[in-house]
Design a protein that fits this description.
- The protein is an all-alpha fold.
- Helices cover 73% and strands 0% of the residues.
- It has helices at 19-39, 46-53, 57-63, 67-90, 98-115, 118-125, 130-151, 159-180, 187-210.
- Helix 1 crosses helix 2, helix 4 (67-90) runs parallel beside helix 7 (130-151) and helix 5 (98-115) packs antiparallel against helix 9.
- The longest helix is centred in the middle third of the chain and has 24 residues, at 67-90.
- The protein is elongated, with a radius of gyration of 19 Å.
- It starts with 18 loop residues before the first helix and ends with a helix.
- The relative contact order is 0.12.
């Protein structure tokens, strides 16, 4: 459940059911997010998280086996937030056209990555070990399944291809957004090119459907 060298997905030892425990759980995660952004994944320790959250280290270990589990839970939090936004946009289909849907969603993601440095910090942290990568893949897959459902009207008769497209779209978007916020990069120009690339990809399918 907490071995970073394994390829078994990493999850908390338990999730809190009572309000007081939930507050501690969320506080530890919020502190971990701040610490990850401040000092980086290598320097982040469970001891420092517990100290900043003002909880005994034993309390932290009741929920999280190690810092690898913590960053995976942060990645899950980020994924859930994106899923909520995507669900709202997806509910507008078919009133929204594909270019508008793509542009609005990428604008939302780009704003998150621009104004919240922890997004990239978490994304990079979960690439660090086989187990964190395996967990990140599951989180991406959950988002891709949602994208796959949204793509169904556009690619109605090719389920396996639609699944591959959805995973590719999600991974490409996240990789490009991570690149866009690197020091020295023109974030705005990168996002514009990402929109063009993914928009053209989807419009090509829309044109094929209309033929």
């Amino acid at each position: 459940m907490g071995d970073p060298t394994s390829t078994t997905p990493l999850v908390p030892r338990r999730r809190p059911s009572q309000e007081r425990s939930r507050r501690k759980f969320e506080t530890m995660l919020a502190v971990a997010r701040e610490l990850l952004t401040d000092v980086g994944f290598e320097a982040m320790t469970c001891e420092e998280i517990a100290a900043r959250a003002e909880v005994p280290i034993g309390t932290l270990y009741q929920f999280f086996a190690n810092k690898y589990v913590i960053v995976c839970e942060l990645d899950r939090q980020d994924t859930v937030a994106v899923q909520a936004e995507l669900a709202e946009l997806g509910s507008s289909i078919p009133s929204l056209d594909w270019p508008e849907l793509t542009e609005r969603f990428l604008d939302h993601l780009a704003a998150l990555w621009q104004h919240d440095p922890s997004r990239r910090a978490v994304w990079l942290a979960v690439q660090s070990t086989p187990a964190t990568r395996a967990t990140a893949v599951l989180n991406e897959q959950a988002l891709a399944e949602q994208v796959e459902h949204i793509l169904a009207p556009l690619i109605p008769n090719q389920r396996e291809r639609r699944k591959t497209m959805a995973r590719l779209l999600v991974h490409t978007a996240y990789s490009a957004l991570s690149f866009s916020v690197q020091e020295g990069q023109d974030r705005g120009a990168t996002v514009v090119e990402l929109k063009r690339m993914l928009g053209a990809y989807l419009l090509r399918e829309q044109d094929k459907l209309a033929d």
